[in-house]
Design goal:
globular, Beta-galactosidase, Chain A, domain 5, 28 strands, mainly beta, nine-stranded antiparallel sheet, six-stranded antiparallel sheet
């Protein structure tokens, strides 16, 4: 008899799936709305630890404050002035909008109800694949491309893993890349005493709107960066406000780059792993609730404003009929 299970449930009017690992005391809650993770629980000595600072109820799932655990596609984070140029064609993601109201963030699918394409349990884990074909020409202003998106969640003995696949089903090349926007909470304290380690060699420098500087000016070796933002070795976050991306990630022997977060007071920790790409860390200083009570550790295939960066052009380009895959996940660590 397998230790894993999948059970349907509801959050208000929304369908959710509960993935459980009884043997290791773990439970994952997933909503079809946005294919969004809304719970990541670890039981230790009969105490349930909620490690996901996600949406708390149906109203938050619908209004999406702070984009908690958002699936970000076909782009992650920001596009400068909501405009970009691709293959010599200019595109406006917010036609008719002017001034300070212009902003385009986190893609198009946060409010989409995904289909459950596959769900199954075997001896190795519980697996759920969400799918949507909503990204089509005419569906979203300024994005005349056709992308099929699937996101597979797997709960197994190692923890939670995600596999995102984007396939260009259109007739022209398309710009696209994937990102995930999780917020982790290790206890009831603020993040200052938590220890963070980011295995990167380079910091991404940005302007006041968090748009990376043009060209090589965006890249600052951590040897030359402010020491407070250097987390190559694990150290307490302290009062540092972090809203920065890190690149040139260093992988472990298994090919995964791991960003490590730990609360020394409780011994509870998570390792956010990714196969490649960019890691953006955000200490939740500007969120609408629970300021600095969690930290976002965001694996992304490329950096903010990648649609406008020649140095990202090859990473975001997807030819007709081609498919790209991105793997990442969460390991739960506790003393």
């Amino acid at each position: 008899m397998t230790a894993f299970s999948i059970e349907p449930s509801r959050l208000g009017s929304h369908d959710i799936l509960i993935l459980s690992d009884v043997e290791r005391g773990r439970c994952i809650r997933l909503a079809c709305r946005g294919a969004t993770l809304i719970g990541l629980e670890q039981t230790v000595d009969d105490t349930v630890h909620q490690l996901a600072d996600g949406y708390r109820d149906a109203a938050e799932l619908e209004s999406r404050p702070s984009s908690r655990f958002a699936i970000m596609a076909p782009f992650a984070n920001r596009i400068a002035d909501a405009r970009y140029t691709f293959d010599s064609q200019s595109h406006d993601l917010q036609p008719g909008v002017e001034g300070a109201q212009r902003a385009s963030r986190h893609g198009f699918v946060r409010g989409v109800d995904f289909d459950v394409a596959i769900q199954h349990v075997d001896a190795d884990g519980a697996h759920v694949t969400f799918a949507t074909s909503v990204i089509r020409p005419g569906a979203f202003p300024g994005y005349p491309f056709a992308i099929d998106l699937t996101v597979t969640y797997t709960l197994d003995a190692r923890g939670l893993s995600l596999r995102a696949n984007m396939r260009n089903v259109g007739e022209t090349a398309a710009p696209c890349f994937f990102g995930w926007h999780p917020y982790f909470r290790l206890g009831d304290s603020i993040v200052d005493t938590w220890e963070l380690q980011i295995p990167a060699a380079t910091l991404v420098r940005t302007d006041a709107d968090y748009i990376p500087f043009a060209g090589a000016a965006a890249y600052q070796p951590l040897d030359e960066a402010p020491p407070a933002l250097d987390f190559r070795r694990a150290k307490p976050i302290g009062r540092t406000e972090i809203n920065h991306a890190y690149v040139d990630l260093v992988r472990d022997a298994d090919g995964r780059a791991r960003t490590r977060l730990r609360d020394p007071a409780t011994g509870m920790g998570v390792n956010l792993w990714q196969e490649h790409g960019v890691l953006l860390a955000f200490t939740a200083d500007t969120v609408t609730r629970d300021v600095r009570r969690s930290i976002a550790l965001e694996p992304m295939e490329s950096m903010s404003d990648a649609f406008n960066r020649p140095d990202c052009a090859s990473a975001i380009r997807l030819e007709p009929g081609a498919e790209r895959s991105f793997g990442f996940g969460v390991e739960i660590d506790f003393a």
